[in-house]
Write a structure and sequence with these properties.
This protein is α+β, with helices and mostly antiparallel strands and 365 residues long. It has 12 helices and 15 strands. The radius of gyration is 37 Å and the shape is elongated. The longest helix is centred in the first third of the chain and has 30 residues.
């Protein structure tokens, strides 16, 4: 039975282009041929299939046990019938292979082969995509906006792979235009019946981490450590850093000359403001740093609560410490892991004459 030279040539081209071993195709074809033959014959025969992908030849055999009396013709053959087949040295209990080449099955075999190969190529390609991207979860990926309509945003990662950017992973107010190239955080890869489902994010703290690692050589060289990142995506982020070299300023390295490095990252994140914070082993000092750019006068631990502090800022610094809609103090609390209660510290004043007379009167009484 022949699949045809054109079919074999096309098969080899496909397996080469997709990087698939021929064994995958051969094994799948054999299984499909067995199923197709049983369906064609209407039984449950023991079938063996041999496929030669070099020339497209398919050989199908029914394997039957030699019996004195046949009770199941699908899997048994009588010793008398074997005698008519000119098979030498066959005894009862032996198994014989009988080549099967039923009329019209060649057309069915070719059609089945095509269907199997198409499906197997799809399955194999899906598996390749899954394996390629499941190893990249947590990495930075670059993609092109492929579709942005009806609340659906799809990202093309390469010629054969698309990812989903869900609503909750989008930066608030950010616009997505087809053809636009952007960077994303690879959030999740899952196998589904329709192939791998790849999810990317623009809001994950990991995106900021990967971008700053890419931009700052001192982080790549392990001179500067990132100790923590919190974001309200598209609006503001705080990033705590620590230098392992006393001669390297971690804030200056991350900001860059004239702010070039941090401006580049901010631009990539739709103008997100990024505060670079110096990490400190002293939690109170770390909290003071985290509330930057506000200047803090005093910090007092709240003994009645675990990991809670009262922070005092002068009135002119109070709104800066709290931030727009509480954003600055909220991010500082998330970054440090402490509850922060901000209060205004009224400036001390010199006593007036009225205050002095009042004190004299009290003493006279």
């Amino acid at each position: 039975m022949q699949l045809g030279k054109d079919f074999v040539r096309a098969l080899k081209q496909l397996t080469s282009d997709r990087g698939l071993p021929e064994e995958i195709i051969s094994n799948s074809l054999e299984a499909a041929m067995i199923s197709a033959y049983r369906k064609y014959k209407g039984g449950n025969q023991n079938i063996e299939v041999f496929i030669d992908l070099d020339n497209g030849n398919i050989s199908i055999y029914e394997v039957k046990e030699v019996c004195e009396e046949v009770s199941n013709p699908d899997i048994e053959i009588s010793i008398q019938d074997v005698g008519h087949l000119n098979l030498p040295d066959v005894s009862i209990g032996d198994f014989v292979r009988l080549e099967a080449n039923p009329e019209n099955f060649g057309r069915i075999a070719a059609q089945t082969a095509r269907q199997v190969i198409i499906q197997r190529l799809k399955d194999a390609e899906r598996q390749i995509i899954y394996e390629e991207f499941s190893d990249k979860i947590g990495d930075l990926v670059t993609g092109i906006i492929f579709k942005a309509e009806n609340e659906q945003v799809l990202v093309q990662l390469n010629n054969r792979t698309e990812a989903i950017l869900p609503r909750e992973e989008r930066i608030l107010g950010e616009k997505y235009f087809p053809g636009e190239r952007m960077k994303f955080y690879l959030l999740d890869v899952r196998q589904t019946t329709r192939g791998p489902r790849i999810v990317v994010s623009r809001t994950h703290p990991g995106l900021l981490k990967k971008l700053i690692e890419l931009e700052v050589p001192e982080i790549q060289e392990d001179v500067i450590e990132i100790k923590g990142i919190v974001r309200e995506a598209g609006a503001r982020a705080k990033l705590a850093v620590h230098s392992l070299d006393p001669n390297v300023d971690p804030v200056g390295a991350c900001v860059g000359n004239n702010g070039a490095r941090i401006k580049s990252i901010s631009k990539e994140l739709n103008g997100e403001k990024i505060d670079i914070i110096i990490w400190n082993t002293d939690p109170l000092q770390f909290i003071r740093n985290a509330l930057s750019p506000a200047k803090i006068v005093k910090i007092e631990p709240m003994l009645e609560q675990e990991k809670a502090v009262k922070v005092y800022a002068r009135p002119d610094q109070l709104s800066l410490a709290i931030g727009k809609a509480g954003q600055n103090v909220r991010l500082a609390a998330r970054l440090t892991g402490w509850k922060i209660d901000i209060n205004a510290l009224e400036p001390e004043r010199m006593p007036t004459l009225h205050d002095i007379f009042q004190d004299i009167i009290k003493e006279g009484e």
